[in-house]
Design brief:
alpha/beta; Rossmann fold; 8 strands; about 30% helix; globular
Length: about 260
């Protein structure tokens, strides 16, 4: 991957994936498959993008990250899903779509020749929330992921109660779940990874200490609770780093993301 200018990762025209595959009938129910020239590991990274679950943020803004992982020899399934503002997005459609995309993995294995016994969930921001949540669903039998090796969560919104208390992104979680914790308390409990611990899979959380979109303190508190519950969790603080460096292959944070994926 060539060096870029001083523009931010969100300002650049993203590259195109190798293959787009639908997992459902709605326009947003698809994923982009990134195939390496040489699959050095045959591992699959399921990447879930962020954007506070809103329709205006779609999967292309993480394409540079997906391309960079493919250049490292990984197969990447970049999942799109219905978001708040899309028909059927929010509760429960957003969550159902993530599970449907994961149900599609055996079919994808024939397309991409990856090893279903070496699957890693990775997500950024709201996508980090969905990656952790999906791991919890695998534990509960709502999706079959026998080869799940762990989760790499990049600045994840790991605690939805806390997201509401802190009014993150203008109360985005209220739009996602259709109400406040007082109004739809069961949804907060069943949708928040922090309420579903332990997940019983290894987790690596990478978070910039200067993140102004998802406060670093959320990952600190989640990691502490997860370890106390018996999970194996590593929290990697990035001093002075913000929110989008974690999906920027040209940033100093990026080698840590790749290293975390390799570690699982």
């Amino acid at each position: 991957m060539q060096h870029r200018s001083s523009e931010t990762i969100l300002d650049l025209t993203p590259p195109a994936a190798s293959l787009r595959i639908a997992y459902g009938g709605e326009p947003e129910q698809f994923g982009d498959l990134w195939l390496p020239e040489i699959a050095e590991s045959r591992r699959l990274v399921v990447f879930i993008h962020g954007g506070y679950w809103r329709a205006r943020y779609e999967l292309a803004h993480v394409n540079f990250a997906c391309q960079a992982l493919a250049e490292q020899g990984m197969v990447v399934w970049n999942v799109e899903y219905r978001r708040v503002g899309n028909r059927g997005g929010g509760w429960p459609g957003t969550f159902d779509d993530v599970l449907s995309a994961l149900d599609c993995l055996p079919r994808l294995a024939h397309e991409a020749a990856f090893d279903l016994r070496r699957v890693i969930l990775c997500g950024h921001s709201a996508g980090g929330h969905l990656a952790l949540w999906a791991a919890a669903q695998a534990l509960r039998g709502r999706v079959v992921l026998p080869g799940l090796r762990g989760v790499v969560a990049l600045a994840p919104v790991s605690d939805l109660h806390q997201a509401w208390e802190w009014h993150l992104s203008q109360d985005a979680v209220v739009d996602l779940l259709g109400g406040t914790p007082n109004e739809v308390s069961e949804r907060y409990d069943t949708a928040s990874p922090a309420q579903m611990l332990p997940l019983h899979v290894p987790q690596v959380l990478i978070h910039g200490t200067a993140d102004d979109a998802v406060p670093f303190a959320m990952s600190e508190q989640y990691a502490s609770r997860a370890v106390a519950a018996g999970d194996r969790v590593v929290l990697v603080p990035l001093e002075g780093q913000g929110h989008f460096e974690l999906i920027d292959p040209w940033s100093s944070a990026w080698p840590l993301v790749v290293g975390a994926l390799r570690s699982l």
